Amino acid sequence: MLSLHNVIIIMIDGGRYDRSINSDFYKKLKEKSSFFSQPITYAPHTIAAMHAVFSGCYGIRTGTDSYWSTYRFKKNQFKTITEYLHDQNYYTSADIVSEIVIPKQGFDEFQIHDEEKDDLTLRHLELIEKTYANNKNKNFFLYLQFSDIHTGISNEVLQVYDNFSEEYFQNKKLNKKRYDELFKKSEFYLDKILEKINSLGLEKNSVILVMSDHGISVGEKIGERAYGAFCYDYTLRTFAYFIIPGFSPLEISQQVRTVDFMPSILELLHIPLDKNYSELDGESLLPLIKGQNVSENIAYSETGNPLEEKKPPKTPNTKSVRTSKWKLIINERDNSKELYDLENDPAENENLIDKNLEIQETLWKRFLEIQSTKVNN
Amino acid sequence: MFKMELTEKSPLKKNIVFFLIDGLRADQCHGENKSSKTPNIDLLIKNGIYCKHAISSADGTIISLNTTFSSKFQFGNAVRYQKLVLDKNNFLEILKKHGYHMYGAIPNMTSFKPLGEYFENENNGYEFSSPLETLSTGLTERIIQILESKELLEPSFCYFHLFDLHPLREGKKSIGIEKFENEEFGLNAYARTVSLIDYWLGKILAKIDTEKTLVVITGDHGERIPYEDEGYSDFQPRFDSATKLGRKHIPKSAHNLGGKFFGKAKNTVGKIKLSYSNTKLTPYEKRSRDPYFTLSLFDELIHVPLIFSGIKLPGMIISQQVSSTDIFPTICDIVDLPPINPKIHGSSLVPLISKNLQKEHPIYLHTMPYEELSSLDRVGLRTSKYKYFRESRDSKKNVNLYDLKKDPYENRNIAKDHPLLVEEMEKILSELISSSKELELEEISKVEEEEIAKELRKLGYI
């Protein structure tokens, strides 16, 4: 058992899984981590994705299921990881891009950076030092959002093209180059941040999670220039590196859900779940981190496709249920479905819906079960 | 589970009868200090749920009702007005949307008008003054008439606001109290009036089919029960002969001046006599003799009874602290209405009835407002362990902290001995207030939307 156990979450906003596995820097990070190569986000956009991570629950139950529903988070029913740690006398601090991207509950310090002006590397290095210096005899929880990829995409894609711009979709090479340059920034940032953490000795007494909230399109599917419109793997599949003192590095390739992160951290810290709050959707990944076999859970995701509108809708209209091998997508906007064999068709190009595959019915039933947990906002 | 049983046995919507007994204290309905004789209330408790630690957020009727009907605390918004404010999301509106027909009897007062507008029966206002209509003087018949009316449509929600305890504030006796004026019915005038109310309630309850009707009884706030039945006015000299002589011999033009003189003299003498008589009394006993309009957040003014009975509810006493903001979410849950709007402070007590644990929340307290700000205006909170309050405009003034477990009568202010605890309570209070601002923000969807839109624009999403 750890004597001191800080929690540091570094969230690489818009970090693509495929780029992480090909990056030399991330490869090195993998060598000292419990690396999850297939975490599936609840939502392919930050607001709903991170509310789900913080609460260990899907937004379909917590109320935060869209870009618009931060204030609909049911804080009396769902306790966030911040609140759990705060109750354990942790000092809790966050530095994020906007006040609506994560639940505020339980934070002692809640800072918003200016994504256009602030140098996040310098800013977060200072924050780590300050938090460390002020809490030498106290545990702390630090949540850092690296938003430079988002900022670049926002300036160079979101504000320039729409979801159907021919110029964008015909220029995949440029899209990839743009994204790769932005992703590279995360390597520089992480290098400095992890070096600082190490130099302060925090790797020895902290649970560190480096994760991404969703991926970003480089023009794979017409209709989605960035993220938040569809439920394809280039935005749903994320990465997670848990650096935990005393645990041997390993790669866990089976599918997990980002809602599993919160209960995993609580179990690592021996913090029991508060029975006064609603049950979690997530389950602890600790057995997997310990190298044990655990059966895989179905991952549920949803988002609101804006279609021809300029604003994302207030309720999700595009949903999916996924295993490591299969994915069923339900497009409520036109009542269509898509089924993909992820093992043989990871780019999700061949729709196998209504081809008499048994898995379609199994996933559909599971989808209906999850839908029945939906609460009214 | 309890709720399942209800659903299976009675698929039809249940009727609701809600009695609000103005100024009814919890300790005169149930518990070891009760001296009133209330067989009808006792039976309701036996066959239903009794919340023994139900707390109203205010010491006055209107604010308390606002918090009850809206299920929201009175944080500096509309629910702190001195009139009933029933916004579009209030619970009467919710019941109405689900097909409930509303009937009631309420005092004929302007401040109650918004409530009366919900009622389908025309004669819903009863005389509040000269003289007040009470259960003994016709209100019982009026209520029975409403309940037995052929025009009453189901499912029905009937609300009856009883002011029978009010005359006691001015030292007046209820009409019909004569048969109850002995120790068998209570040790003081208040307890005996409660016995009288119970007697008449019995007549009304006999007309209610409790198999298909949920009966709710609560109070809006408590009341002072003057120690040895002697309140502040009992210590004032009456100056009857002097007044009589003055009226006879002093010119009419000087009556006003004379009245003021005698009034001042009455107060001064009364205060001296009261102070002398109070010498050996505890703070609780002293407070009991304060004028009825004195603002206060002590338990005798905010601890109320809360009963849910009928429709085969299990007999159960709930000990956990609950709030009047929980009443309507519980009613809706019991009568199987779909999940309610989460943007409220109260929550359903059904999980407690089903013996599931539920997190206890601190209850916000704020004295009722007067037109001019009073130096006695207090704000604070109550947990099952502590009561904390202080001046509403200055967190450092008149700081009060009571250990409710060790000192249920709130005789010993321990604020000075426990500065850290005071700090902690103040922090909880500020969090409660700021969380309510978030709640208010949630409520105003346009403001919410604009704020989020601004952030989304900044983030490049729209």
Give a description of the structure.
The complex is a heterodimer of chains A (377) and B (462). Chain A is of the alpha/beta class. Chain A folds into 2 domains: 6-289, Alkaline Phosphatase, subunit A, CATH 3.40.720; 299-371, Arylsulfatase, C-terminal domain (2-Layer Sandwich). Helices cover 33% and strands 18% of the residues of chain A. Chain A has helices at 17-22, 24-31, 46-55, 59-62, 81-87, 120-134, 148-158, 166-169, 172-199, 233-236, 261-268, 286-289, 358-371, and strands at residues 6-12, 34-36, 39-40, 91-96, 109-112, 140-146, 206-212, 240-243, 250-252, 256-257, 299-303, 318-322, 326-331, 336-341. In chain A, strand 13 and strand 14 form a beta hairpin. The mean pLDDT of chain A is 94. Helix content of chain B is 34%, strand content 14%. The model of chain B is unreliable at 1-10 (pLDDT under 50). The chains are: A alpha/beta (377), B alpha/beta (462). The A-B interface holds A 45, 63, 67-68, 70-72, 74-77, 97-100, 150, 153-155, 158-159, 228, 274-277, 310-312, 375-376 and B 338-339, 342, 347, 357-359, 361, 435, 438, 441-442, 448-449, 451-453, 455-456, 458-462.
